[in-house]
Amino acid sequence: MKALSDGALCKAANEKMTVNLSEDDIAKLSETAQAAALKGYAPYSRYHVGAALLYDDGTIVTGANFENASYGMTLCAETVAVAKASSEGRRKGLRAVAIAGGRVENGALVMDSAPVTPCGRCRQVLNEVIGAPDSSALVICSTSNDPVLFDFSDLLPQPFGPAQLGIETE
Ligand SMILES: [Zn+2]
């Protein structure tokens, strides 16, 4: 496994974080999230978001945003991906999450130079699986340039999770 170094494809938002994923894997996961975003249902905001969850057996589970005419019932891509994975029995062994968002023009995703990070609600949803046994906390946020990497604890410090309820999840 190659460690990231200066001049690497990806930039870690926090220089102290450890990245245990190769640049190729990071790039592939980012591209998978971008492809998922094209499948987003976003007739209201016109902002498509895709998410890709990489598990320790190499499986990638994707999700895309699913908007609703009521607006408030909209489901984010990350939430869709986590629910999809959970419904397939995957609640452990998450290695990384990639997220990509932007507008679709001529069938292509047009992203901004700033990273698209998970919304507050999705950070709480992701905490349920990132805090699970054998799961890690790398969040890969795609941009129009190189992906930016975050440690999940920087995105959601002091999380509320099963530990606060005295529960060990399976
Ligand atoms: Zn969200």
Our measurement of the CA-to-CA distance between the termini, rounded to an integer number of angstroms, reads: 28 Å
Low-confidence stretches: 5-9
* The CATH top-level class label: Alpha Beta
The sequence of SSEs as H and E is: EHEEHEEHEEH
Query: How many β-strand runs?
Result: 7
**Gyration radius over CA:** 15 Å
Structural class per helix/strand content?
alpha/beta
Descriptive notes:
The protein is of the alpha/beta class and 170 residues long. The chain has one domain: Cytidine Deaminase, domain 2 (3-Layer(aba) Sandwich). 24% of the residues lie in helices and 22% in strands. The chain is built from four helices and seven strands. Strands 1, 2, 3, 4, 5, 6 and 7 form a seven-stranded mixed β-sheet that branches. A hairpin with a 2-residue loop joins strand 4 (94-105) and strand 5. It is globular, with a radius of gyration of 15 Å. The structure holds zinc ion. Zinc ion binds next to helix 3.
